[in-house]
Design goal:
The complex is a heterodimer of chains A (111) and B (117). By secondary structure, chain A is mainly β. Chain A is built from no helices and 11 strands. Chain B has strands at residues 3-5, 10-14, 19-21, 24-26, 33-39, 46-52, 60-61, 64-69, 74-79, 88-95, 105-107, 111-116. Classes of the chains: A mainly beta (111), B mainly beta (117).
Chain lengths: 111, 117
């Protein structure tokens, strides 16, 4: 079984630029999550999808972050414009009814 | 609101010894799940062990066991016979109430474990 794929692996951008991350979950997994992990902290949920519908986006900074999951499969997370405090690892995870699998993450550095 | 507390920023252990990583949690829900994840320097989150709030016995997975004390709201991870490859960050996490069908995880701040030869 292929794992959760994320790209790019690393990204460096200047503040006020935009950036997008891509996640392809495990085939058949209905639930997809995006987490933000700031250095020295545990991951924090940004958004949760069930198929292509949003279940929870209460901690997503909607003025600059957006996410979509077209056709209930892969997903993109966008930041526009980026701030210095957005520097973090962005982890994607997927699950069937139960059991998480995380991707390797995208490490974003905003300079 | 759910909260996970890991009070040990770092732990040191010698190879082949056992080590306990502490985790306390706070929730008002009667049904929940508790997880431990390992995060090596490469960044991926590796699932180690799970304990459901209604499970009668402590969970075990190979060298990992979870010391679940419900009354104290603690879910400590015990690693027996430590190996050099166990050096990593370890996160305790709690899921949404089990009856919601959803599994948002709330993580602690982590404990960095260093295993020395």
């Amino acid at each position: 079984e292929a794992g959760v794929a994320q790209s790019p692996r690393y990204k460096i951008i200047e503040k006020r630029q935009s950036v997008a991350f891509w996640c392809n979950p495990i085939s058949g997994h209905a639930t997809l999550y995006w987490y933000q992990q700031i250095l020295g902290q545990g991951p924090k949920l940004l958004i949760q999808f069930q198929n292509n519908g949003v279940v929870d986006d209460s901690q997503l900074p909607k003025d600059r972050f957006s996410a979509e999951r077209l056709k209930g499969v892969d997903s993109t997370l966008k930041i526009q414009p980026a701030k210095l405090e957005d520097s973090a690892v962005y982890l994607c995870a997927s699950s069937p009814p139960f059991g998480y699998t995380f991707g390797s993450g995208t490490r974003l550095t905003v300079v | 609101a759910q909260k996970i507390t890991q009070t040990q920023p770092g732990m040191f252990v010698q190879e082949k010894e056992a080590v306990t990583l502490d985790c306390t949690y706070d929730t008002s829900d009667p049904s929940y799940g508790l997880f431990w994840y390992k995060q090596p320097s490469s960044g991926e989150m590796i699932f180690l062990i799970y304990q459901g709030s209604y499970d009668q016995q402590n969970a075990t997975e190979g060298r990992y066991s979870l010391n679940f004390q419900k009354a104290r709201k603690s879910a400590n991870l015990v690693i027996s016979a430590s190996q050099l490859g166990d050096s990593a960050m370890y996160f305790c996490a709690m899921s949404d109430p089990l009856n919601t069908g959803f599994q948002k995880l709330v993580f602690g701040t982590g404990t960095r474990l260093l295993v020395s030869p």
